[in-house]
């Protein structure tokens, strides 16, 4: 009788990822999340790369259409149930308000039942972007949240 090897991330409690974070990274991230059902702390450090294709978030709060990135994450919700019920702390560094980043934040807020704290640290900041950044922060605060105990901080 053969024995199955345990998933290498089954007991993982804290994970730090450094990545470029473009649209093509979503399936890999979803696989890591599925493979980490006990993860409590997630740190994502987004590395800026001029070659990485990143679409800026350009929707207004009244635009209720759903992007391809959002559809992808929503399609993964059932398979990520254990991960989403354990995740407590999320920190994202190098956040640049791109659609794929915002879609992930929205998904984690919407489905993270155990989420207690999310910290979003912006990357390089230009003074002319502050109005846009404030608008995006306001939209993020308006997303539906699964956890009534969650706090979000912007730096």
Q: How would you describe what is shown here?
A:
With 155 residues, the chain is α/β, with parallel strands linked by helices. It has helices at 26-34, 68-75, 81-86, 99-111, 130-142, and strands at residues 14-19, 41-46, 89-95, 117-122, 151-154. The chain has a 5-stranded parallel β-sheet, with no helix packed on it. Helix 2 (68-75) packs parallel to helix 4. The model is unreliable at 50-55 (pLDDT under 50).
> What is the average of the pLDDT values?
81
Let me know the number of strands: 5
The amount of helix comes to 25-40%
Quickly give the structural class. alpha/beta
Oligomer designation: single chain
- Largest sheet, spatial ordering of strands: 1-2-3-4-5
Outline the fold blueprint.
Elements: E1 14-19, H1 26-34, E2 41-46, H2 68-75, H3 81-86, E3 89-95, H4 99-111, E4 117-122, H5 130-142, E5 151-154
Helix pairs in contact: 2-4
Give the tags:
alpha/beta; 155 residues
Describe the structure in brief.
This protein is an alpha/beta fold and 155 residues long. It has helices at residues 26-34, 68-75, 81-86, 99-111, 130-142; strands spanning 14-19, 41-46, 89-95, 117-122, 151-154.
């Amino acid at each position: 009788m053969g024995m199955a090897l345990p998933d290498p991330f089954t007991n993982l409690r804290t994970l730090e990822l450094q990545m470029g974070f473009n649209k093509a990274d979503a399936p890999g991230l979803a696989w890591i999340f599925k493979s980490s059902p006990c993860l409590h702390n997630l740190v994502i450090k987004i590395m800026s790369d001029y070659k990485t294709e990143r679409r800026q978030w350009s929707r207004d709060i009244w635009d209720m259409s759903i992007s391809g990135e959002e559809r992808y994450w929503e399609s993964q919700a059932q398979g990520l149930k254990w991960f989403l019920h354990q995740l407590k702390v999320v920190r994202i560094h190098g956040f640049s308000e791109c659609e794929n980043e915002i879609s992930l934040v929205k998904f984690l807020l919407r489905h993270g039942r155990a989420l207690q704290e999310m910290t979003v640290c912006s990357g390089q900041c230009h003074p002319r972007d502050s109005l846009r950044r404030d608008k995006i922060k306001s939209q993020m605060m308006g997303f539906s949240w699964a956890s009534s105990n969650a706090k979000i901080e912007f730096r």
